[in-house]
Amino acid sequence: MLTTKVEIQNLTKIFGKKERQALELVKKGHSKEDILEKTGATVGVNKASFKVEQGEIFVIMGLSGSGKSTLVRMLNRLIEPTEGNILIDGDDIAKMDKEQLRKVRREKVSMVFQNFGLFPHRTILENTEYGLEVQGVDKAERQEKAERALDNAGLLPYKNQRPNQLSGGMQQRVGLARALANDPEILLMDEAFSALDPLIRRDMQDELLEMQDTMHKTIIFITHDLNESLRIGDRIAIMKDGEVVQVGTGEEILTNPANEYVERFVEDVDRSKVLTAENIMERPQTLRIKQSGPRVAMQRMKADNLSSMLVVDKNNVLKGYVTDEDVLEAVKQDKKDLQEIVRTDIPKVHKETLIHELYDVIHNSQTPVAIVDGEDKLLGIVIRGLVLGALVKEREEETVDEQ
Amino acid sequence: MNNSILDQIPRLPVSEWMANIITWLTQNLSWFFGAIRDGGAWLMDGITDLLLFIPPLLFIVLLVALAYFAGRKKLGLPVFTLLGLLYIHNQGLWDPLMYTITLVLVASLLSILIGVPVGIWMAKSRTANWIITPILDFMQTMPAFVYLIPAVAFFGIGMVPGVFSAVIFALPPTVRFTNLGIRQVPDEMIEAAESFGSTGSQRLFKVELPLAKPTIMAGINQTVLLALSMVVIASMIGAPGLGERVINALQRAQVGPGFVAGFALVVLAIILDRVLQGFNKSDN
């Protein structure tokens, strides 16, 4: 039985001076441009309504300026709503006084930010215990809870570092650990993974899903990325110009777009077309051309059971690949330099390449396919199995659909 | 001809108004000013006596050590401090130096105690910001000498009016930089603090002030240097110290002694500035 955790009703936000006048126009159904012209006020969110069920990942998707960040900030009143109701467990957040609101923020709702929102003057541990600290939890207890949260994220060894000493992915893990440390029921995630590079981003999405399997939080996740929405969202709300234009599962939105806007958004989304090299690429095992010789190569290939490895220079620009046979030969002949055995006949594609195009490339190749950017820098690697897997999955889904 | 209409306008008695205000304050609040004068004089004499009680050699060693740590253990600043203080002692300016240090110390501390809270208030309240900003502009553009006159009216002559005028002159940078520092805290930091349910004071003390600290320290650095320049000027109303020597030399047109004391002030200013900057940097 599903229970509603969060419900918003006619939630509206108007930025600007002539708030009341603009609100009247909103109620009469005037468009955003129209209201801006008449009153100079901007409609951030326009009569948004939806329900979020207990334990689901609810994604709010829209392009920049669609009002999604404003909407999520109204859920914990970082931005004051102009009108409408926000019910969490049936209590209206919009009508609470400061004291009640603070209690909700401390105990029920935590937030994860796009640029992590970590305090640079505090250590990782001190950041993680912030939420408990402001509640007045005593030091020993809050440290223990914070350490447990960091341990779950695999970050305990870094607890005495400062945020700027950590990579972006690790910083966002801290952001997530901090939000989870006071055990909230609802997590608000505002473009939480958008600042991360594609591979880390996928890892984080996986970790979030894994975490959700055991924790069953109610998660409201903001993103501008359709693939991310489809990957993690149980249900998706699509926003445009401050309005919620459609709410449904990924499947419903793809098969039955509510209007032309949604249709354009999800155009051509059958899996093989929407999945790009970026979505299925993996982190490559690489050798640095100057630092590594044949012996290092042999050692690492043995350790990871690889038959070939990519070779890059110090700027991560792809130079080619080496095979296990060549490496073995080079070691026997006591060569010191990888340069002599690097092969350059490796197919390179950009991350936007669609996977059915990728299939043609990889079909004719003996080696994995390298994903590079405009400057030939290596971003990731795609091996044959991954492409096939993705295509098979798509075929299966089509069959299911037909039945 | 053209002036004739303008000449018809009677002269506004601004001078009389100001004089009346000051006289009224002096007469009606004399008990208040008297208490401050006596208490202040007692306090500052005490500080100066304490500083003079420390043997000069020990004092120099302590300051050199301070400079060593402030300058991230490089040698330039401690060597300069050592040579500079030896020069001042050598020229027989040790006692005036202690008076000047007392004045700068007390004026700076008062400026910080008043300035930081006022700066915070301005950052939090639009109305406060709107009212206080022009007052700060006024305080900073008014020629410093003008403050000496009410200072004398309220407190007579000596150290206390010197500190009074120095605080008025040196206060604005601390207020402005505190205000600026808090306003510059990134929105996402504020949102993060708020989203976890911080109270106003938790947000201020745990997030805003720590993040604004480098900016506030830059303001305090300026305040200290302005306080130094003002306590020199305040020698005209009998504040003791190095400034007194400069004024004496000026009145008698003695080039030599004027420069001797002037150099001592330069030495003090450089030590104060570099040590404060050093501590601010090593904190970050």
From TrEMBL, chain A:
Enzyme Commission number(s) of this protein: 7.6.2.9
Q: Where is the CBS domain?
A: 280-338
Protein name as catalogued: Quaternary amine transport ATP-binding protein
Q: Which InterPro entries match?
A: AAA+_ATPase (IPR003593), ABC_osmolyte_uptake_ATP-bind (IPR051921), ABC_transporter-like_ATP-bd (IPR003439), ABC_transporter-like_CS (IPR017871), CBS_dom (IPR000644), CBS_dom_sf (IPR046342), Gly-betaine_transp_ATP-bd (IPR005892), P-loop_NTPase (IPR027417)
Primary subcellular site in the record, as a coarse category? membrane
Instruction: State a single Gene Ontology molecular function.
Output: ATP hydrolysis activity
* Species classification: Bacteria, Bacillati, Bacillota, Bacilli, Lactobacillales
User: What are the protein's UniProt keywords?
Assistant: Amino-acid transport, ATP-binding, CBS domain, Cell inner membrane, Cell membrane, Membrane, Nucleotide-binding, Transport
Compartment annotation: Cell inner membrane
**Cellular component GO terms held in the UniProt record:** plasma membrane
**Signal peptide boundaries:** none
Instruction: Relate the assembly described in the record.
Output: The complex is probably composed of two ATP-binding proteins, two transmembrane proteins and a solute-binding protein.
Bilayer topology term: Peripheral membrane protein
Family statement? Belongs to the ABC transporter superfamily.
SMART domains found in the cross-reference section? AAA
Q: Which residues form the ABC transporter domain?
A: 30-266
Going by the entry's taxonomy, the superkingdom of the source organism is recorded as Bacteria
Q: Name one GO biological process term.
A: response to osmotic stress
State which residue ranges cross the membrane.
none
Q: What class of enzyme is it?
A: translocase
Q: PANTHER family given for it? A: GLYCINE BETAINE/PROLINE BETAINE TRANSPORT SYSTEM ATP-BINDING PROTEIN PROV (PTHR43869), GLYCINE BETAINE_PROLINE BETAINE TRANSPORT SYSTEM ATP-BINDING PROTEIN PROV (PTHR43869:SF1)
TrEMBL record, chain B:
Query: GO molecular function of the protein, one example?
Result: amine transmembrane transporter activity
Instruction: Tell me the membrane topology, using the record's own terms.
Output: Multi-pass membrane protein
The UniProt record lists the keyword Transport = yes
Q: Which residues form the ABC transmembrane type-1 domain?
A: 97-276
Looking at the UniProt entry, the stretches that span the membrane are 50-70, 77-94, 100-123, 144-171, 224-243, 255-272
| Stretches of the chain forming a coiled coil according to its record | none
Gene Ontology cellular component list: ATP-binding cassette (ABC) transporter complex
State the compartments where it is located: Cell membrane; Membrane
Give the UniProt keywords, A-Z.
Cell membrane, Membrane, Transmembrane, Transmembrane helix, Transport
The organism's superkingdom is given as: Bacteria
* One of the GO BP terms on file: choline transport
Q: What is its main location?
A: membrane
Q: Among its keywords, does the record have Cell inner membrane?
A: no
Similarity annotation:
Belongs to the binding-protein-dependent transport system permease family.
Q: What's the name of the protein?
A: Glycine betaine/proline transport system substrate-binding protein
> Where does this protein come from, organism-wise?
Alkalibacterium thalassium
